[in-house]
Amino acid sequence: MPPARKTGGTDPEDRPPPATAAPVSSPLDAYFRISRRGSSVTQELRGGLATFFAMAYIIVLNPIILGSATDKHGRELDHGELVTATVLVAAVTTLLMGVIGNVPVACAAGLGINAVVSLQLAPEMSWADAMGMVVLAGLVIMLLVATGLRERVMSAIPDGLRKAIAIGIGLFIALVGLVDAGFVTRTPDSAHTTVPLGLGVGGHLKGWPVLVFVLGLALTFVLLARHFRGAILVSIVTMTLAAMIIHAVGDLPAEAWGLTAPEVPDSLVEAPDFGLLGEASLFGGFREAGILTGCLFVFTVLLSGFFDAMGTILGVTEEAGLLDEHGRLPEMNRVLMADGAAVALGGASSASASTAFAESTAGVGEGARTGLANVVTGALFLLALVCTPLVTIVPAQAATPALVVVGFLILASNIGSIDWSDLTIAVPAFLTITLMPFTYSITVGIGMGFLAHVLLRTAVGRPGSVRPALWVTSAVFVVFFALDPIERWLGLG
Questions:
Q1: Could you tell me the pLDDT band of residue 214, with boundaries at 50, 70 and 90?
Q2: Cβ distance 149 to 467 under 8 Å?
Q3: Measuring CA to CA, which residue among 80, 64, 141 is closest to residue 354?
Q4: Does the predicted model carry a pTM greater than 0.85?
C-alpha cells in the first residue's frame, strides 16, 4: 500500500507530484489524479471489478429484506421494482461518489438501515412515508456537511481511534465474509448455548459450497504471497467457474449456495421496472406516527447513516493511503456531500438509504486508489439493470474470500500504529475493534469508542485534550444508546 501523503500546510492534491511520480498523460489521468496517487488505469479497472463482485449480493439481498415486510396498511413492495431500484441507486450513487469525491468507495443500500426501514418505520406508516424519512435523514446529513460539522467530527477523532475504526471495519467485513460463505453460522437459540456463532453446521464444515470458499481463500492468500497482480479478482473468477462446474456435476440444489446459485439462467437479460422511483413522501410519516416519533425515526436513520459511512470512508481511504499525515482526506467535504446525497437518493428511489460499502476494500486490495474504480463499479451496476440474472451467477462462496483477505490486510497495516501504552487510546481502540464485528454494527463500535475515550480522558484529568466536536458527538451517542428507555419515558415504547 502506498504511504499516506505528507503535507506542508497546503492541500497535497494541489502540490506538484514528486519527481518519482508518473507524468500525467491524459485528461482522465489528470481528473482522477491516477498517477499522483501511484495507481494506473489497469489497477483502477481491476479494483472496480473486484468491488462490484464483492458487493453484488446486495442486488439479491436488499429486495428480500424490504420485500419481506408490510407497511401499516398491509402493502408489500414489488420484488421486480425493488431489484431495479436497488441496482439503479447503487449505480448512480457509486458514480456520484467516484466523480465528485474521487475516492474508491462504492455505495449501495445499507444493510443496517434497510432493516430499520422495514422493521421499525414501515409498520408505523406507509412505505412512501418511511422512504420519506430516509430522504429527510439524507438532507440533514447534507446540511451538516454544508455547515462543516461533519468534517469537524471526523477531524476531531484521534489518530489511534482512526486506526481502530479501520481495523474494526476490517474484522467486520471478514466476519461478513465468513458468515455469508457459510463457514461460520449462527447457533440457533433453541440450542440453549452461550456460543452465538459456530463452525459450519453443527461444528463441522459440510457441503461443496463451503469447499469452494475454503479453496478460494487459500488461492487468494497463495497469490498474494507470490505477489501476483490481480490476486483477488483472479480468485473470484476462478472460483466462480469452479462453482459452476461443481454445481452442474454434483446436481446441487440452488438453496445450497445461499442467495444465488452458480448456474446459467434461462434468460441473461431482464427488463427493469422503475415503478418505485419518486414514491417517497417527505412529511407524511409525521402525520402517521406523530411528530415526536417521526423525529426519533429520522434521528435513528440519520445516526446510522452518518457514522456507518464515516467509519467506512475513513477505513477504506486509510487502507488506500489517501489520508495525509494528520489523518485527513483532502477534499473531504465533497466526499461527505456525495454520501449525504446517496442517502437521500436511496430513499427517493424506495431502495432505502444508500451508503458507503465496506466491501470497497476488495477493490482497494486490487490497487484502486481513485474514483475511476467507482466509475467501473457503477458502470457494471448500470449493466446489471438489464443483466441482473447474469450478475447473480457469482455465488457468495466465490466472492467472500476477498472480504476475509482484505480484513487481514487492513489489520496487518494498522495494528502496529496504535499506541497501546496509552490506555485512553488503547481501551477505546479495543472497544471499537471488537464491538464492530461482535455487534455487527459499525456505528456501535464507533459510539462505544468515542464514549470510552471521552470518559478516560476526563478520568485522568485531560478533558481539554478532547475536541469539542467529540464531546457533542459523544452526547449524541448517549442518546442513541439510551433510545429505548427514552422512548418508554416518552410513552412511545
A1: very high
A2: no
A3: 141
A4: no
Which tens digits make up the pLDDT trace of 286-307?
888 778 778 878 887 887 777 7
Domain boundary assignment for the chain? 20-186+287-392+405-489
How many angstroms separate the CA atoms of 352 and 147, rounded?
25
3-state secondary structure of 107: strand
CB 438, CB 196: distance < 8 Å? no
109: which 3 cell numbers?
A: 443500500
440-484 confidence digits (pLDDT tens): 888 888 889 999 999 999 999 999 999 998 998 899 889 888 877
CA distances 459 to 32, 280, 456, 483, Å, are: 46, 47, 5, 26
Q: Which triple of cell numbers denotes residue 68?
A: 419481506
Burial 138-162 (b: 16+ CB within 10 A, else e): bbbbbebbeeeebbbbbbbbbebbb
**Residue 205 near residue 390, CB atoms below 8 Å:** no
The grid coordinates of residue 444 equal 456501535
* Run of H or E including 197: strand 197-199
- Angle (CA) 483-153-408 rounded to 5° is 90
Q: How far apart are CA 372 and CA 362, in angstroms?
A: 15
Calpha distance 238→376 (Å, rounded): 20
Check pLDDT > 50 for residue 21: no
In the three-class reduction of DSSP (H, G, I as helix; E, B as strand; rest coil), residue 355 is classed as strand
CA 427, 429, 432, 434: dihedral to nearest 10 degrees?
-80
